[in-house]
Design goal:
By secondary structure, the protein is α+β, with helices and mostly antiparallel strands. It is built from four helices and seven strands. InterPro entries: FAD/NAD-bd_sf (IPR036188).
Length: 162
């Protein structure tokens, strides 16, 4: 079950996931909010969700671990296209180039698009002599690709509460 946040009025989202051995995990996420410090605070956040299902589930559930908090303070894009001293014959992809918030699930998709772009650009290369400047052209195109396909929330961190 998943209940999405609806900003700005509803800053919290929640999900219940099933695991092996009839166990479940409950995750709550809040935009620009402090994470709860106790199980009671966790349940109070679940109570604020627009549907009651996660809160009702928690009322009858028995915790099997302590409350854990995972914070995503910001997303990162390394602008190698702006660097004058990048090593030639080296390019970065995936999280080494830009790191997305995993809640949105676009990191692997964007990494696959980056790899596809790399393959296309290598195929279009006329000769090996272009390798010394290849990274400059590649990074210029990579910036455009990640801006189009990425959801950047540099100023709006998300806390995932587990």
């Amino acid at each position: 079950m998943m209940i999405s946040a609806q900003l700005p009025d509803q800053p919290y989202a929640g999900v219940i996931l099933s695991f092996e051995e009839s166990k479940f995990g409950v995750t709550l996420g809040g935009y620009l909010k402090q994470p709860p410090k106790t199980d009671e605070e966790f349940r109070l956040i679940a109570k604020t969700l627009p549907q009651p299902h996660i809160h009702e589930f928690l009322l009858s559930a028995k915790p099997i671990s302590d409350l854990n908090t995972y914070r995503i303070p910001l997303q990162v894009s390394n602008r190698f296209d702006r660097s004058d001293n990048m090593p030639s014959h080296l390019v970065t992809l995936g999280d080494a180039y830009c790191r997305f918030d995993p809640l949105y699930g676009q990191g692997m998709s964007v990494a696959a698009l980056e790899a596809e772009l790399l393959g296309t650009e290598l195929k279009n290369m006329k000769d090996g002599g272009e390798l010394s400047t290849f990274h400059n052209r590649f990074y210029a195109k990579l910036v455009k690709l990640t801006k189009v396909h990425g959801i950047w929330r540099l100023l709006n961190p998300l806390d995932i509460l587990i």
